[in-house]
Amino acid sequence: MTETNSAAAADPLRAADVLAQRLYAAGCRHAFGMPGGEVLTLVDALTKAGITFHLAKHENSAGFMGEGVYHSDGAPVILVATLGPGALNGVNVVANAHQDRVPMLVLTGCVDAAEAATYTHQVLDHQAVFAPITKATYRLNAEAAGVIADKALRIATQPRNGPVHIDVPISVADAPAGPHRPYLAPARATQPQPADLAQARAWLAEADRPVAVIGLDAVAEDAGASLRAFLEHYQIPFVTSYKAKGILPEDHPLCLGGAGLSPLADRHLLPLLREADLILALGYDPIEMRPGWRNAWDCSRQRVIDICAEDNTHYMHAASLTVVAGLAPSLRALTVGAQLADDAPQGNAHWPDGQPEAARDALAAAFAADADWGPAAIIAECQATLPADTLATADSGAHRILLSQMWHCYEPRALIQSSGLCTMGCAVPMAIGRKLAEPQRTVVSFSGDAGFLMVAGELSTAAELGVAPIFVVFVDASLALIDLKQRQRRLDNASVDFGLHDFAAMGRAFGGNGVRVRDRASLRAALSEAQQAERFTVIAAEFDREAYDGLI
């Protein structure tokens, strides 16, 4: 070992090093953000720990890129922002992580407390800003750097997941860290109570018309195998929220499809729920759902079992039996117990009048894939042309509602989106992060033209990172969903239309490919070529305004 390296090895760890090494130990390999002078030590520490720092063009996009990676590798997101405007630029994506249950470490630089006493330029209380939209907020202390890092990670990753903020003063980042403290073992999933299991088993055995609603908690817990065994044993048809799509393959015979934002879908699914005699809310977090799903069932005449990560404080729905426990162990106990007692043999007939099958057929007809052109045809053509294991991201807007009903998922997280906060501009950066994490997979982003314009500069990030997602843009020069609501309320057209821009040219200008399409054949050809391209491709799919009427 050289003298220089020996001296470096003897140097005490900085507080920033301790934080970075703890994040690396948690599986983090990527960090995203915009550096400023106040976070240079932090970025240096992340890099030395083995975590690659990726420069985005906006902190909001940086957070969504991190979320894209998280859905592939499962490690918490790291968002780095400098003080003042940098931190505030990240507010939206942090709030989104809070509502979409994404584990995220929000690391912001700040001036030292003594400096802030007499210096005001760009100085504000970051902890006060982030407290309402995070699970916790800390100010890094050199002596307790390891404890703060460990606490932040535990809180961010315990059910339900969410963001945790750490403010890092300049001098603290460089200060020698205090003595190492051992990390605590992660907590195990809570087991259900025997009395609750007995009650649930009895109701399952007596049910003639059961139906399950599966949500985001099931995905966070990776409960797919337990869900499959349970639902197949009891032969229970199920609906998923949009973010739970693919928890079981959507071609499963018990799957009725996704729900959450489409009034058209609700017309077929909500009546089925009202006819059920037993409803099972399995990892169902109603934060994704529209108002029509508030009090979607009636506990005075229906039995409802709610197995959830947290007790019901939202009051979006009620339950006859609430089990606050791990979903997977609860379902395993119910399935194994029933098998041992032989009280619900596999293949037990339910719904003798075939209402679930009728609802599934009605949904398929309502969201038909045979249109000549328009938003439904674009989605159908993309699904038909791209590989079955394609990873998709969806921006908010009318196209997302249609896409979430029509796009079939065969694995969890195959379609990711902002469902809790419904943030525009998320799809492009999430696709960049997803492709960075899984370069061998086909990744496609679906954006409305307005949402795409919000983050078009991140195309340069895709070029710099050398990733090649496919960016499909629904081009109708309108805020289509807001325009539709405006017309439904018989209001005058106002502030929803904008210019018809050349999005394909934007793709080429930022170093990728770009093509405009107005029919299925052209779209099919563009998708096929994009899959072979070494650079990203922007496909601008143009159609007439008001094309969503009657579709969502």
Q: What is this structure, in a nutshell?
A:
41% of the residues lie in helices and 16% in strands. It is of the alpha/beta class and 552 residues long.
Q: What proportion of the residues is helical, as a percent range?
A: 40-55%
Helix segment count?
24
Low-confidence blocks of residues: 1-8
Radius of gyration: 25 Å
Q: What summary fits the major beta sheet?
A: 6 strands, parallel
Features:
552 residues; alpha/beta; six-stranded parallel β-sheet; 41% helix; disordered N terminus
Architecture overview:
The chain is of the alpha/beta class and 552 residues long. Strands 2-1-3-4-6-5 form a six-stranded parallel β-sheet, sandwiched between helices. Strands 9-8-7-10-11-12 form a six-stranded parallel β-sheet, sandwiched between helices. The protein contains 24 helices and 18 strands. Helix content is 41%, strand content 16%. Helix 4 packs across helix 19, helix 14 runs antiparallel to helix 16 and helix 17 (375-385) crosses helix 18 (398-406). The chain is globular, with a radius of gyration of 25 Å.
List the helices and strands and how they pair.
Elements: H1 3-10, H2 15-25, E1 30-34, H3 40-49, E2 52-55, H4 59-73, E3 77-81, H5 85-89, H6 91-99, E4 104-110, H7 113-116, H8 126-130, E5 136-139, H9 145-157, E6 163-169, H10 170-174, H11 194-206, E7 210-214, H12 216-220, H13 224-234, E8 238-241, E9 255-259, H14 263-275, E10 278-282, E11 303-308, E12 321-324, H15 327-341, H16 355-366, H17 375-385, E13 391-394, H18 398-406, E14 415-417, H19 427-437, E15 443-448, H20 449-454, H21 459-465, E16 470-475, H22 480-488, H23 503-509, E17 513-517, H24 520-532, E18 537-542
